[in-house]
Amino acid sequence: MAGCxxxxxxxxxxxxxxxxxxxxxALLGLxxxxxVDKNINSYLDVIEVDTEDPYFDYAVYVLxxxxxxxxxxxxxxxxxxxxxxxCLLGFYIFFLMIIIGGEIAAAVFGFLYKDKVxxxxxxxxxxxxxxxxxxxxxxxxxxxxxxxxxxxxSDSYETWKxxxxxxxxxxxxxxxxxxxxxxxxxxxxxxxxxxxxDATLCFNATEGYYHSxxxxxxxxxxxxxxxxxxxxVAIGIxxxxxxxxxxxxxVCREINKDD
Length: 259
Prior knowledge:
Blueprint lengths: L1 H35 L1 H9 L7 H30 L2 H27 L1 H16 L6 H14 L15 E3 L2 E3 L11 H6 L9 H5 L11 H44 L1
Antiparallel strand pairs: 1-2
Helix pairs in contact: 1-3, 1-9, 2-6, 3-4, 4-9
């Protein structure tokens, strides 16, 4: 009976560690995605995160390294279960508890500084708006975000005023990408092709021909759209970690009985 319980515990531990391995692979993929995805780079440029800056590279590499670490921890758990090694299982439990502690600390930190982060993001949006005319990267980033999120400026189209924006050599209150476009899909792939559905009505701020929502709210809506998915994945990973610890303790207990 004891041998049967040991085998079941070992099999379940291996199964959960396979899932844990996959979560490590997902973190590795996320780090690579942050580095190469064009859309992510545009969102980051709007809040003045320079994706060519070495510090951004360091952050991405830390994410990749954490994914590799999770992968390694899962490997220790599997090897410990297969070889019935109390040493490897001990390392596995120890590292899992460190990961869980880090996740709890990150969640608390994010909750405590949520308002400060929102204020900082708003300030950065205003700063990059002032660089719209002088920086091609910033201009492309703002144009992309305004088209993709159907938004205009930081808080509204009025935040573009006094920045000397021009359309067809004529002064206007906001960029043409604040307008409802004739072909949004084409404009996302080729920003230079962005053409207002009706430029006159748009620049007169006629309802239905321009985007009245601010991009700060658009970015917040985008985050909220994926918030439950991220929350669900985080809870799922935490559940796997706790279950992994429980089964590791079970395997260790069965090994002690056999000894």
